[in-house]
């Protein structure tokens, strides 16, 4: 089959790799029908995630069709259309029992496209299939559903829930990329008084306004002053960091009010300063987190009911074989205006399930 393979810092290639095979009785082999790229994939390519080794098939988000299952799989069967979660869950360890699937110690957590081969391929082996894939309702389009594999549960759980957004709050989202826009969309479920979006790119700020941001500020337009002006100098109740660089993290800690909450969502590849000389007296709550995807079934129900707008986020579509072009477009968002790219191509009817010889 063909797959997008990480070849070392700055290099990926769409190339032939061995077909996946069932290795454990809890596995499912899924044909990839719709897949997307994530900002975390760009961090991997930049070398920010050293655990990802050259030769790894990237990707952790997809919708596809189950082709084969191991003997222990009960929740899905061949022919089912499923959402592949970015997080795999063993279901048995302490963290899985607490629904903290992102911290799974039984072989799950964020493994796809990280520690095992991922979804940016024609086929993928999904471990712990009973708990790691979700049947897609018949009325939900695959290219909409794929956004629930990662960005929507991440924004909702790590941003909105960790940030404890409440009715009437002033919420600031720093970074209006896919995660930030999903954070704006899901924060609105809690009726905040005001949402302010901050980004470098005007096209993303325009998207933020369309999705419900009440005010926007370009990074060069003194966003901290805007927040102060709109809150009578108090600061925001909730600030979400959705970029992953030191400057934006430190900006978030300056914009939060005493007693407020800073929810870090961004993937950081470099140290950021924590200015406790200013924060120690402010009663600020700072949260970090990897998504658990415990909210995915609820989000799927909301999407099926038409309560979760997603069409705004997919700006570019490609066939599966255009993976390298899609990376170029997504990685040059300032030039291309890309928010989220989605790929899906010619369908296949069979998969060679002979034992794989790759890293799997």
UniProtKB/TrEMBL annotation:
Cofactor: Zn(2+)
Domain of life per record: Bacteria
Keywords assigned by UniProt, alphabetized: Metal-binding, Oxidoreductase, Zinc
Domain Enoyl reductase (ER), residue spans: 8-343
One MF term in the entry's GO annotations: oxidoreductase activity
Gene3D superfamilies, per database record: Medium-chain alcohol dehydrogenases, catalytic domain, NAD(P)-binding Rossmann-like Domain
Family named by the database record: Belongs to the zinc-containing alcohol dehydrogenase family.
Name under which the protein is recorded: Alcohol dehydrogenase
